[in-house]
Amino acid sequence: MDADSAPMSTRKLPNELERVIFLDAAISRPANIPALILVAWRVKHWVEPLLYHIVCLSRIGAPMEGYPRFTIDVMLRAIQRKPASFFHDNVQHLCLNSGSTAQQAAILRACTGVKNLCIPNHSLEPHLDAIDAMAPCRLMFSHDLSVSFGDSIFRNITHLSVEDVGNARDEGNWAPDLHLIPNLTHFSFYLDNISRELGPPIAACPRLQCIVMHCYTNLEMMHVEEIEQAWLSNDIRFVMIRWDRHDFFGDWQRGAATGQDFWVLAEASIAVKRASDLHPRMPKFSILPFSVVNSQQGCAMAFSMYPIGLSGLTP
To answer: What is the pTM of this model?
Structure first.
């Protein structure tokens, strides 16, 4: 009997080829992994770890297309059922924007292998030991001024995003110890958090390559004089990105999944400025409207660059 006429029950692909097929299906659309797990125990063993590669626990927005929705309760039940090594080995990107302090602590203690941590709208202070054990390379958080940048949790940080600063206007220079982060190359913050005192601590960071300031609305753009008057206006590494606040978590997920996020956008702008012969006659920082274009090839970033002056935007 030839292979074409053999009953379906007797056909079997080589194990390694079968594994490649299921892994490819899981990677291309992680939202399908819960269904793939039900096929067979061996398939569950292959693909289940990929389900937890990117965990976004947020009350805001929907998961990126093709990715599963996680909830605090689902994550905590999984942590109770599985060995500690499972989450250490498999959770690489974690966004934690829901749950109580105790629930967050349980998740952070389990996911000790995370390299990209986003924990906005919550204080880091209750979780310093867990984050210290994690030693992430990328961190996005709300700075409530209770944690010093000299803390050991920042020792491996290369990309730091300060999502908000408590009482930043009153504090003035809220980052005097930023230079204590030994490996920092990328730093971002928000327009509401800028002050004239912020320039010197940024200038004191020896390895800093990219400085991004976010703004969300045209109203915020009216404060551009403050930026022009600040030290940052003369720094070629400085880029301002205008985007939709609702795309905050979408951008984080895209960055985790594809590597294409606002950092890539800013780096491209800086490269253009460095390479341009016109650069000395242009303002040294730029405003980039942020948009993400979905295509069959994946996510591509589209941006245009505008010089900016005291009178506002000029194409």
So the answer is: 0.80
